[in-house]
What we know:
The protein is an alpha+beta fold.
Amino acid sequence: MFICKFRYVLFLFIFQGYDCGRRIQEGEPLNTPKKYAVYLLKAPVSPRFYDGWLCGGALVSEWFIVTSAACVTDVTHLYAIAGYSKYVSDLEIHVDPCTRAKKKKIVFVCTPNEYEFNYQDHTKWAFIDIAVVKVESPYDFSDTSYATLCSYTPAPISINYDSKYQEPGIDAMVLGWGHRDKYRQEMDLQDYNQENLNYAPTLIQHKELCKEGYNIYEGMDLVIDKYMICTEEKGNLNDAGLAILKAQPNAKGCVAREALKIHDLNCEKENGEEGEDDDELLILSSRKLRKPANITNDDAEQKVYNLNERSNSAIDANSTVDSSLTKNFNKTALKTEKGTPTRRFGICQNDHGGPLVTWVGAHEVLIGVATAFKISESLDCIGPYLYTSTQCNGAFLDCVFREANSPTRRQEICANLTQQGIKMVEKNISWIDHPDGPADNERNITTHASPANNTNATMHLKNAKGENNHKIFYSGIP
């Protein structure tokens, strides 16, 4: 069921070049609408010349979307698309009837200041990779015109802050419009983002699995422990929350999970013959929670790939592939019971920021945002997969939303963040000087004094009490 050994390719320039997109790996079309799922597109006129740039997100209120910090750090002027299961590129955003009428400009971005946009240090881009963005005007959750112009009227999803809903063994679902399974090769300019929203059922794993998978990166174990959710296996709930496969009534008593050892398993083919390469069979069940210790990736062969990698022809020329690692490259695939190779279920490029959700009763809740995965030598997206947890970052999220709802209470909650050394970066985005015109919240501004350096986005680094420590101006579009 798994590839036993991979050589991973390290692309040195994360967020550089064209962003070809990767959809939910092994994803399936949705049968039930996910009205909270949104995607972010860069404005067609942008200093960032990314091809097919795309990030996911989750609508959590009429004003706010939860996404990845990396998605909103590199590109300034963004549009949010909600209520639409169809992917529309930034080149068509003013043409498609839905996006032309319903797109919303992003006017505010908030991230933890610990997040550092560092192309080569993976512990930096993975560290608290979560953000909250605000749209120019509130979504109307009773607007029936979405059903005519788009797919459905958008609706928010609740955020999970309870650790029990991200424990190993919990079924979850990841959503996105990215590639199906492959990383786009150098010089390939085709947009592989999928036309419609897809989902993949997945299973939350022990964090030890991801720490092992990313163990060549110093400090990643601490980041994973403190902020991440780890997944790898296919889950057993479909997009409606119903069981895909029902357990067979074969038990003749129960055995404690801790008592089950790998050598106790009898992995045989259905005809009763012993399977070939028994030491490489991995048939614990459809609910596997841990990779056996004897199935490991050679540290020298491991490289990690960030979901947000932007790799155009100019940047890809600087990518490195260590040919010495191919000498003993093992392409043996672990097999299913019938010997057919299969793949893991997770995320791929351009799924970054997309929602990881689970069920609380009959209701879906947001538990994480897509952050990272790996790629094989053949450019397949593989796990283990990393998501930034909403529960692990609950104080940050609560601080952002408290500011919107109760400034007094917000100061009390956010003070705890400062004591922990966490500050918030709040960036207000102005569209007044942008070719697409001002945002809705700026249309009442009758006069505008342009700054001397012609900037149109400012970032405030605030402490928990909202005090400005310093201000940085970002170059805008003339």
